[in-house]
Amino acid sequence: MNKELEKINQTLEGKSFEEKLKAFFHTAVAINTPVAIWRKPQEEKIQATCQVTEGLDFVEEIESASTGFLFNCFKSNQQGNFIRSEINLDQESENLSISPKLESSDRLNHFFNQFAQFQEDPTEFNFQEQLKAAPHVLDDKQAFIQLVEKCKTHIEEGYYQKIVPSRRSRYQLPKGFHPVHELMKLCKSYENAFVSLVYTPEHGLWLGATPELLIETENDQYFRTVSLAGTQGIPKNFNLSQAAWTQKEIEEQALVSRYIINCFKQIRLREFSEHGPKTVKAGNLIHLKTSFEVDMKATNFPELATVMLKLLHPTSAVCGMPMKPAAQFLEQHEGYDRSFFSGYLGPVNDKGTTSVFVNLRCTQIFKDGGIIFAGAGVTEDSIPELEWNETEIKFRTLLNVFENI
Ligand SMILES: C=C(O[C@@H]1C=C(C(=O)O)C=C[C@H]1O)C(=O)O
């Protein structure tokens, strides 16, 4: 097996990282196997992993999971998807490597053969032909405004404090669109984002650049999460310290912080640090963010990642408060299935670190175009027209990059 790998790595010499990444992605899609490519915020390195053996795992416990990539939809009662890291490509080594646990198999040979073939003729493969056609999407401004009004009425009646309705919209992929190239452009444009491209035969192709961390653990010691809400577009050359926030936005973000603190309270965790709220830049937008950190060793909470993932998702940044009734409201009134939008995703147990993000500012790519998603936090002070505008500028985070604006 190592000989096979050596041979493949020799063929990579002299190729650019983007060419290698494209070959990796094309191979996985062509042989119908799940693949994830990602770049963490503030990091240079792009990593890719794929699973050639059959069957996606369902991860019960983060701590005992193998190294891999978690990809979960919005509805928390639906099973998670976990792509086991079997074949890897990262920007540091620039080479393919395989998990020491992986045994030689037909599937692995199939991957190697296909990869070698794409090395020889990189232009041959049209990834889009492997994808499904996009569903029909009803994207109507008036309908969304009415949905926001409905949220407000329910909030005023006292059932909820906040609801986060969302919408999706179809767009045409610009000429020459390639998801790997777009991922590289997103990495360059948005250094604070978690940028990812995920494909599974069952769930299709997703590309995103999210600003929102859900949970992170570092070296089995530090646990981190954030509360992020409040949104404004920013003009170019804007100074962050000049940001002004309305009472509505301050309260909307404080609700998310309270939700996180309540989760800590439920498990009787009292020792955590809290920083913020601070204004942060996320692509073409600014948000209010508070960061939380727990020393898992000092508090004797080694399984905090698993416990908090279950408690936090979906947070009031993407669903509402109180959580369960807000999720039911959305199920009843939102009018479509969010699927992986506002679910969560990220690398697990990768050199001692797990980083899982909320899947925002994302798009699903189909045979015949893309569908883009965005939501907006509604409170009793919301102005429906402005919430619509907010979803429009959230779409622009990706679309500006795709259209080179
Ligand atoms: C729901 C989204 O974003 C969330 C909602 C925000 C808001 O309402 O201001 C801000 C950041 C995110 O927590 C989205 O980007 O689609």
Give descriptors for this structure.
binds ligand ISJ; globular; 31% helix; Anthranilate synthase; 9-stranded antiparallel sheet; 9 helices; 2 domains; alpha+beta; 405 residues; 8-stranded antiparallel sheet
Broad structural category: alpha+beta
The multimeric state of the shown protein is: single chain
Q: Please state the second-level CATH architecture of the largest domain.
A: 4-Layer Sandwich
Overall domain count: 2
Quickly count the helices: 9
The CATH class of the largest domain, by name, is Alpha Beta
| CATH evolutionary superfamily of the largest domain | Anthranilate synthase
CATH fold group of the largest domain:
Anthranilate synthase
What portion of residues belong to β-strands? 25-35%
Strand order of the largest sheet: 6-5-2-1-9-10-18-19-8
**Bound compounds:** the ligand C=C(O[C@@H]1C=C(C(=O)O)C=C[C@H]1O)C(=O)O
User: Alpha-carbon distance between the termini?
Assistant: 46 Å
